[in-house]
Amino acid sequence: MTRQIIAILRGVKPEEAVDIGQVLIEAGITMIEVPMNSPSPLTSIAAMVEALGTQASIGAGTVLSAEQVEQVADVGGKLIVSPNTVPEVIKATKVRKMMSYPGVLTPTECFEALRYGADGLKFFPSMLVGPEGVAAIRAILPKQTLTYAVGGVGPDNFAQWIAAGVNGFGIGSGIYKPGYSAAEVSQHAKACVAAYDLACQ
């Protein structure tokens, strides 16, 4: 089962990346992003791809340029997540046969992202539009569109967002903060997975 949960490891360091990636996979999370404003993000991504690339989709977040897309592709990354909708980033991602998850907040951004080939839409920060806003936008999107809520979401409100039409979530500090041990990440990840599975029933 591929759960639509993207673990956001903002601030992760290369020396801990593989251990944290491993406990995420063991908990049932198989989509992992290392934001580009983390310490040596490409080194962390490369290490996780080498050790865990057959078990998870690993890539970068906070990707702002086509140049960064190329850097992530060159170390084996498979997914690109952005906080905004930039056609050049989406196009570069698809040229390299990677998965594209741009940030959106309005219908205009949603349809522009889809027109350029986005694989999923990341509502960010989702607390600004809320479940009601997402539900209204969801009604006009193609039914097969994958939507993710990022920002202000967690195990306590997964069900509310899923009822609004969201398919998945990007979880940052709810799973990982700099300084968390692998055991702490494991605990948070298992709680997220349990809540997600329950909300999807």
Automatic annotation (TrEMBL):
Membrane-spanning intervals of the chain: none
GO molecular function, one term: 2-dehydro-3-deoxy-6-phosphogalactonate aldolase activity
Pathway note: Carbohydrate acid metabolism
Coiled-coil regions, chain positions: none
Annotated keywords: Carbohydrate metabolism, Lyase
EC number, UniProt record: 4.1.2.21
InterPro entries on file: Aldlse_KDPG_KHG (IPR000887), Aldolase_TIM (IPR013785), KDPG/KHG_AS_2 (IPR031338)
KW Lyase (keyword) present: yes
One Pfam assignment: Aldolase
Signal peptide per UniProt: none
Quaternary data: Homotrimer.
Family: Belongs to the KHG/KDPG aldolase family.
Protein name per Swiss-Prot or TrEMBL: 2-dehydro-3-deoxy-6-phosphogalactonate aldolase
Organism encoding this protein: Granulosicoccus antarcticus IMCC3135
